[in-house]
Amino acid sequence: KYPMPSLSRLSTTLLNYCRFSRLPWQPTRLLCDQPAPRLPRVYEPEYLDYKPDYPAANQFNLSFTCHEYPVLERFVKYAHSLLRNQFKLGPDNCRQVPYPQRKTIVDLYQPESTKVRDTFQLITYRRVLIVDNLPAVEMSLLINLLAHNLPEGVNLKIEQPSEEDDEFRFVPDLEVQELKKQVELGRSGK
Amino acid sequence: MLTASIRHIFNYASFGSRNFHLSVVLPAEPLKKKKRVDPQVELERIRKKTRRIEKEIKRLEQRGRYLKPLDEIEGERHFIKTLDSRERKLPAPSETEVEQRALLMKEWTRFKWRQLDTECQLLANQRRELYRAMQHLRMLDPSLFELATQPDESLLGLSLSGPLYTLPQSAEVFDAVDGDYRDVTPTYRYTFEVDKKMTFGKKK
Q1: Which SS3 state, helix, strand or coil, does residue B32 take?
Q2: CA A88 to each of CA A31, A136, A146, B25: distance values in angstroms, whole numbers, following the listed order
Q3: Does some domain include residue A110?
Q4: A-chain residues within 8 Å CB-CB of B130?
Q5: Tag placement on chain A: N or C end, fewer CB within 10 Å?
Q6: How far apart are CA A87 and CA B120, in angstroms?
C-alpha cells in the first residue's frame, strides 16, 4: 500500500487533475435491476402484482481453503461483498466464520529409502461463508461466478453445515465430556 | 491380639500341644456379612447422583465455550518479538514520487471500479434473463416450473479449485518424490480433575 501524502498537497493535485482532465464524466448507473417507480394503482386488481414464489435453498456453507492467507483473505472479502451487494443477502443471511489453521509436516524421502532428506510445514487456512435464504435458482449464478474468479491455490467446497465441523473451532470442553460419560455410566446400569 | 489369646489357650489349655497348632487360616478375620441393599434405594441413589452430574454439566455449559486462537489474525509471537530488528527505516518519498503514487492510485481505482461494474452488469443481465426464462416456463408448464424452482442437491458436495500457475510437467522434468504427511494440528487438551462425588466409581 502506498503511504498517503500530506493532505494539502494531495488535495491540490487531485483537484487540478479533476478540473482539467479530459475524461468523459459518466453518471453512476444503477447496478441493480430495479423497475421505475410507479404511481399507486387504486382501481387495478391486486393479482397483477403477485409474483411467483422462488423458494430459498437450504442453508449451505461455502468453505474456502488455501495455503496462503493473504490470497484467501482477499478472495473471501470479495465473495462476502458479492453476496451482500449483488445477491442482496443481509448480515444475518451471509456470515463469515474463521476456522483455526491445520498444520501438516511433510517429509520427503531419499530415492528408494525412508531416510528423510527434506522437511517442511504446510499450513491450510480456512474460511467459511454461511449462506442462508438465497433463492435456489440463483445458486448456479453464484457458483459460476465464484468458480470463474477463484485465484490460484484457493479451493472452494460447498457443503452443508454440521456440528462436528463447527466443533473444531472451539477448545474441547474435557470436563463436560467426562461428566457426560459418567451420566452414561449411571444410566446404563451400575 | 487374637493370636495372643490363641497362644494363651495354647499355653494353658488342658489338651496337649500337638493337637493344637497355629496356621495361617486361624488368625484370619471372619468374613463380613453381606449387606442387603434395597434395589429401590440403590436406584434412587444413582438417580440423585446423575441429576447432580447433569446440573453440573448445565452449569459448565452455561459459562460458554472458548474459541481456539487464530494465528493468522493474532500474529505469531516469534515475528512480533523480532519486529524491531526487521523494520526498515526508509527516507520520506519526494514530492514528485508522492504525486506519481497518488495518480497511480487513482488509475488503479478507476480500473477496479470498471471491472466491478462490468461484472455487476453481467450478473444483472444473467439474473434478468434467468427470471424471464422462469416466467416463460411457468406459462408453458407450471409443474416443470415447480421442479425448476426447487433447490439443486447435486450442487452440495461440489469441490472446485483455482487454476494452476504452471502446466503439468512430464515425468522426465518433474521428479515425483516419496514422502509422508504428518498432521501436527494443535489439539487443545489440558489436565483437569473431576470431583469424586460426580463419578461412579468402579465396582468392588
Answers
A1: coil
A2: 12, 14, 16, 88
A3: no
A4: 137-138, 141
A5: N
A6: 10
Inspect the interface and report whether the beta carbons of A182 and B53 lie closer than 8 Å. Answer: yes
Chain B nearest-CA distance from A165, in A, is 14
Q: How far is B29 from chain A (nearest CA, A)?
A: 29
Among A58, A139, A123, A177, smallest CA distance to B72 is for A123
Kindly report the number of other CB atoms within 10 A of residue A135's CB atom.
19
The pTM assigned to this predicted structure is 0.73
In a domain, residue A83? The reply is yes
In whole angstroms, what separates CA A144 from the centre of its chain? Answer: 15
CB A179 within 8 A of CB B60: yes
Please list, in sequence order, all residues whose beta carbon lies within 8 angstroms of the beta carbon of residue B30, skipping any fewer than 6 positions away: none
- Write out chain B's pLDDT in tens, 204 residues: 666 666 666 565 555 556 667 777 777 788 888 878 788 888 888 889 889 999 999 999 898 889 999 989 988 888 899 999 999 989 999 999 999 999 999 999 999 999 999 999 999 999 999 999 998 999 999 999 999 999 988 999 899 999 988 888 888 888 888 999 999 999 988 888 888 777 876 543
Q: Which residue has the cell 441493480?
A: A32
Q: Identify whether A135 is part of a domain.
A: yes
Q: Which domain holds residue A77?
A: 61-99+126-170
| CB A182 within 8 Å of CB B200 | yes
Number of helical (H) and strand (E) elements in chain B, helices listed first: 7, 2
Q: DSSP secondary-structure letter at A109?
A: E
Q: A157 vs B56: CB contact, 8 Å cut-off? A: no
Contact between B163 and A157 using a beta-carbon 8 Å cutoff: no
The x, y and z cell numbers of residue A21, run together, are 482532465
- Please give the residue of chain A at the shortest CA–CA distance from B142: A52
Question: Which residues from chain B sit within 8 angstroms of residue A111, using beta carbons?
Answer: 177-178
Q: Is A50 among the domain residues?
A: no
Number of domains present in the structure of chain A: 1
The verdict on a CB contact (< 8 Å) between A170 and B65 is yes
Bridge partners of residue A97, in order along the sequence: A128
Q: Which of residues 43-102 of A touch B (CB under 8 A)?
A: 52-58, 60, 69, 86, 98, 100-102
